[in-house]
């Protein structure tokens, strides 16, 4: 049978703030276990939470970047459940009145409706080691935004590719707007995915299966494809889908049942009596809107329309904000966006992706690109030179001069070599004069280039050689 697939996403991202959401402990990744904790974030009796206003502003910023409406009053609620990584047995979250409602994100040609973004606190982390399990509460209380797509509205996310495109774009918007770093390997962005199938054309929803805490886009993609295939098989065999939460096993590439049935009622949400409702004024929203930095879509338009870059090059540059920032810095010094982009999308990215890090500064890189554009260095020579000075503390100009790789076109250098080659290859010169064959000319250019050891520009050698040969007639 043919099925419609409906995929819902709940995406958690840790906000970039100095301190936690309801106390002044540091929001810092990688500190020694349980060093960033206090009575509030581990929930000791009598400890009172104080809302981090900046975390609220960051949430509003995320919402505005995605075109959300901002609720004038937002409420914090307690979501009650027990788990060892949650010392106080409830998580401060938002249910009825989240900060942001009704947003959208364009994924390929679909404008995917998003229900909400709310602010909550993260839980601690269980660390398993051999037969023992430890708990680290450093992450407990870190501000987290949860975004929930609206699978009740059309259009739906229907494939693993669309889900990954959604997450990729969302991550980019969070990073560019400065609300979150979303480093996947640090677990700063995680997704819960729910999937249901229904016979094609039906308007009733099928039973949802949820997969929790997926990390890494590749495993999310595999987990979605696996789950769609699993449900199809059950339905084709006339079976029924159980409402359940499944855990994805990255190693095995399959999922297994974690728990069945879970509804909002199970958490017995109620307004947190220790926290006042948050009032968000139109002035606040306006001020935060003004503070939004350029977003990927705007930058993309600028690169394509003002800089004349291709869509492909633009996407490649924007995929990593630190690269895009470095690119912008380079073209403020040397405003040749296409020429600079060309180096970025080839040499620079290849070196960074090879794990070499960003091993060149703006001054040296711009000098090198300019020298090639002005034909002072051969492109190929420049590429080899770049590889050589990458990650080292050279002054590119001084080093290039020291190594004698600069082209020497102004002096008699090339002419002398030209004369020498023409004298040595007289028979070939004569043959060219008779036959006017391009191949012969190329051969002579090659000979000259060899003699100059790459210090001349092949195009100019060609022109000078032509001049000479025609003059000589
Ligand atoms: Zn604390």
Short key terms for the protein model shown above:
three-stranded antiparallel β-sheet; alpha+beta; binds zinc ion; single chain; Arc Repressor Mutant, subunit A
Write up what this structure looks like.
The protein has 473 residues and is α+β, with helices and mostly antiparallel strands. Strands 2-6-7-10-1-11-12-13-14 form a nine-stranded mixed β-sheet. The model has no long low-confidence stretch (mean pLDDT 92). The protein is built from 15 helices and 16 strands. Zinc ion binds at residues 20, 23, 25, 37-38, 40-41, 141. Zinc ion (ZN) binds next to loops.
The percent of residues in helical segments reads 40-55%
Total number of helices: 15
> How many distinct beta strands?
16
List the ligand species. Answer: zinc ion
């Amino acid at each position: 049978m043919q099925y419609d697939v409906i995929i819902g996403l709940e995406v958690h991202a840790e906000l970039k703030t100095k301190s936690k959401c309801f106390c002044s402990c540091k929001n810092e990744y990688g500190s020694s276990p349980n060093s960033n904790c206090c009575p509030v974030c581990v929930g000791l009796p009598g400890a009172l939470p104080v809302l981090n206003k900046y975390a609220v502003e960051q949430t509003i910023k995320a919402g505005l970047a995605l075109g959300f409406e901002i609720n004038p009053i937002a409420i914090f609620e307690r979501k009650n459940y027990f788990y060892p990584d949650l010392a106080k047995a409830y998580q401060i979250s938002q249910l009825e009145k989240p900060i942001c409602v009704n947003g959208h994100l364009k994924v390929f040609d679909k404008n995917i409706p998003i229900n909400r973004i709310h602010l909550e606190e993260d839980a601690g982390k269980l660390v398993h080691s051999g037969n023992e399990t430890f708990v680290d509460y450093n992450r407990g209380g870190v501000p987290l935004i949860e975004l929930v797509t609206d699978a009740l509205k059309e259009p739906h996310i229907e494939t693993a590719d669309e889900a990954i495109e959604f997450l990729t774009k969302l991550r980019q918007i969070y990073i560019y707007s400065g609300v979150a770093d979303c480093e996947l390997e640090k677990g700063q962005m995680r997704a819960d995915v729910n999937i249901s199938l229904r016979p094609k054309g039906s308007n009733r929803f099928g039973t949802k299966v949820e997969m929790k805490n997926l990390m890494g886009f590749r495993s999310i993609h595999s987990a979605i494809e696996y789950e769609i295939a699993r449900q199809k098989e059950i339905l084709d065999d006339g079976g029924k889908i159980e409402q359940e939460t499944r855990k994805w096993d990255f190693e095995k590439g399959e999922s297994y049942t974690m728990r069945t049935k879970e509804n909002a009622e199970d958490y017995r949400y109620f307004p947190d009596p220790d926290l006042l409702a948050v009032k968000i004024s139109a002035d606040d929203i306006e001020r935060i809107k003004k503070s939004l930095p350029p977003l990927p879509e705007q930058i993309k338009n600028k690169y394509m329309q003002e800089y004349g870059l291709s869509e492909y090059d633009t996407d490649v540059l924007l995929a990593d904000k630190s690269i895009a920032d470095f690119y912008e810095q380079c073209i403020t010094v040397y405003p040749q966006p296409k020429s600079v982009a060309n180096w970025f999308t080839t040499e620079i990215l290849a070196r960074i992706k090879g794990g070499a890090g960003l091993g060149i500064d703006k001054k040296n890189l711009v000098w090198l690109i300019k020298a090639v554009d002005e034909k002072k260095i051969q492109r190929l020579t420049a590429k080899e030179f770049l590889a050589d000075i990458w990650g080292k503390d050279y002054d590119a100009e001084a080093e290039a001069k020291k190594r004698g790789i600069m082209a020497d076109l102004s002096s008699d250098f090339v002419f002398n070599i030209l004369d020498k080659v023409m004298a040595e290859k007289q028979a070939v010169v004569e043959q060219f004069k008779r036959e006017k064959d391009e191949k012969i000319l190329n051969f002579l250019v090659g000979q000259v280039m060899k003699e100059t050891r790459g210090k001349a520009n092949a195009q100019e050698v060609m022109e000078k050689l032509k001049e000479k040969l025609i003059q000589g007639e």
